[in-house]
Prior knowledge:
56% of the residues lie in helices and 7% in strands.
Amino acid sequence: METVVSGIRSTGKLHLGNFYGAVRNFVQMQKEYNCYFFIADYHSLTTHPTPADLHGNVKQVLVEYLAAGIDPETATIYIQSDVPEIAELYLYLNMNAYLGELERSTSFKDKVRAHPDNVNAGLLTYPVLMAADIIIHKATKVPVGKDQEQHLEMARTFGNRFNRMYNVDYFPEPYAFNFTEKLVKVPGLDGKGKMGKSEGEGNAVYLSDEPEAIRKKVMRAVSDAGPTEENQAKPEPIQNLFDLMKIVSSSDTYNHFDNLYNKMQIRYGDFKKQLAEDMIIATSPIREKIHDISNDHTYLRKVARLGAEKARESASKTIREVREIIGFKSF
Ligand code: ADP
Ligand code: TRP
């Protein structure tokens, strides 16, 4: 069975875009592949979180992934820093990662532009750590978005370089992987572009949002004065709301409002009310699980321990073999 690895940065609450764009696929994938999903807390240190923030964010992501349906018995879900073998492999890979190629990485250049006062070595070698994350389990499939393709290419480079250097055929090549083929882009509520946590207040609906908060956000979503002709093309803010309805509502509901729009009889108040209620129906079971799980420290401890144990079993095997290949020998 092929091995899948994906890392999730610990950056806080999940929204509908994260859920329909990524997490729902993980839930499907765990049934078909040998899956390792981890919370990338080593990676998050490049931005210097306080100890309390670091722990809180890791916990939040762990809780929400479990609530969204990742099954810790089927998949291996773990916290990166619980597997120090990853840091060891990162050290070895760093010896054959060159300054020039690391400086050319698009994400590095973006980070340098955005935070010129914090260009640390961890940021420069972020792709090396990411390669270690992936090849430590000899994964071949990595479910990530388009923006991560360059990192995957670097992971292949570092794995291949190791193989060539020691004349072994040890690490397989990992490739970016879209489980569903058709990628969904979940629009936001601000009338332009995608849902995202950095797109401003009110644009994103979070899995943990209470029903009243969802109603308020949706009622305030950007719309317009209504169609002025029958069967008129929808302007972006309206199209976005319809796209959201297509994701969370039944096709009958969607067709009902689409017909009203085409006949110029739509009332945005009713339309938004329905959209909000369907978002509430879609998120409520997850929200309730988030509440239950976040108070269940015994369960969280058990999940983290089980994940660390399963991940370390795979990682320590790799590290044992890598040490042997490199030539470390005990006296
Ligand atoms: P954000 O854009 O809120 O910062 P991240 O960059 O942390 O979210 O993305 C985490 C995952 O969720 C990625 O796999 C990304 O492709 C997916 N994702 C984020 N926003 C959306 C969206 N609006 N539609 C579809 N997928 C999304
Ligand atoms: N770099 C990824 C991101 O920004 C997160 C990540 C870290 C990752 N290590 C990984 C993703 C390993 C897949 C595999 O989203």
